[in-house]
Amino acid sequence: MTSGRLAAGVLAAGIAIFAALLAAGYGFFVLTNPGQAIDYAAYFGRGLEARVAVDFERHILSWITPLHLAIAGGLMVVLSSIRRRPLTGLLAAAALFAAVFGAEWLKKNLPRSELSRAPGPVPAYFATDTYPSGHTTAGTSIAMGFILAVGFRWRWAVSVAAALASSSYATAVLFLGWHRPSDAFGGILWSAICFGAAGLLLVLVQRPPPSPNKPGWLASGVLFLLCTACLAAGWWLTGDPWPPAVRDLPVAGMLTLIVIPAFATCAWLAWALAGAEEI
Fold it and tell me: How much helix, strand and coil, in percent to the nearest 5, is found in the chain?
């Protein structure tokens, strides 16, 4: 199987899986009483009090502005143009804005009924305007855009930073109380769908030849362990590495539901395109 056919198959399969998970997340966490109850239990049990962590989360979320999104999209085009692949940069920037505007449309138009009473006060917009999280979508999409924009030899290295950025934004909106955990979960999946579609279009248009430099599963395992080590180090540096609430089942489960997709989607995109030298 050629590199192009393999990449197209991996991307198409990933898009289908993530779309199914996005729909399942909405169906369970938004439209059912048990799902809403779990979501709220994790939201109110998050309990991260470390000042360093809170300041860091507010700082990274403050960077999600229209200006910074435009700068990120422009950098994707510049990086791709330097390596004579302007179409890649243009599609990465297009996927970025499609993901951000699409998330805004989805969360404003997907219906929601309050089936489970919140055990405490929540922001007023929680009633209608949350799934998927716009900040998580924007942060994850910027990270995935650079996986596309850089050269194929760098995609695995960039995917490490992308996974860390995605998981940082996704957990930040939860710990600051801006979103429920399911909203962050949805934002990651929606970003992956948009960038998977961009990558699939590139593969179909440019038909990359086989590359002998494609990393194998060993690289995947090494990068996963590196991401895990970096996240553990980040928790330790907050001065409150293991908040009591993290040991509670709803919080631990929902954090897992956020962090694993952040790693998996970035690794999936990098793996699918790692051997596509012409993209």
Answer: 75, 0, 25
- pTM (whole model) above 0.85: yes
Residue 100's pLDDT is what? 97
Q: In whole angstroms, give the CA distance from residue 272 to residue 260.
A: 18
Residue 271's Cβ-side half-sphere holds a number of Cα atoms within 13 Å equal to: 19
- In the chain, the amino acid numbered 130 is T
CA nearest to 149, candidates 84, 82, 76 = 76
Question: CA angle, corner 164, sides to 229 and 144, nearest 5?
Answer: 145
Block mean pLDDT (10 aa), the chain, length 279: 73 96 95 91 71 69 92 95 92 97 93 82 84 95 94 83 90 89 96 96 77 51 62 51 53 83 91 75
Residue 109 CA to residue 91 CA, distance in Å, equals 26
Burial label for 18, CB within 10 Å (0-12, 13-18, 19+), is: buried
DSSP 88: H
In sequence order, what are the residues at sequence separation of 6 or more whose Cβ sits closer than 8 angstroms to the Cβ of residue 161?
A: 143, 146
Structural domain spans, the chain: 3-273
Distances (CA, A) of 195 to 116, 179, 216, 269: 34, 23, 22, 8
Question: For 77-213, where are the E strands, in sequence order?
Answer: none
**Angle ∠(201,142,38) on CA atoms, nearest 5:** 100
What is the DSSP-derived secondary structure letter of residue 153?
A: G
Q: Mutual orientation of helices 155-175 and 51-62 as an angle, nearest 10°?
A: 110
Amino acid 169: pLDDT:
93
Q: What is the pLDDT of residue 53?
A: 59
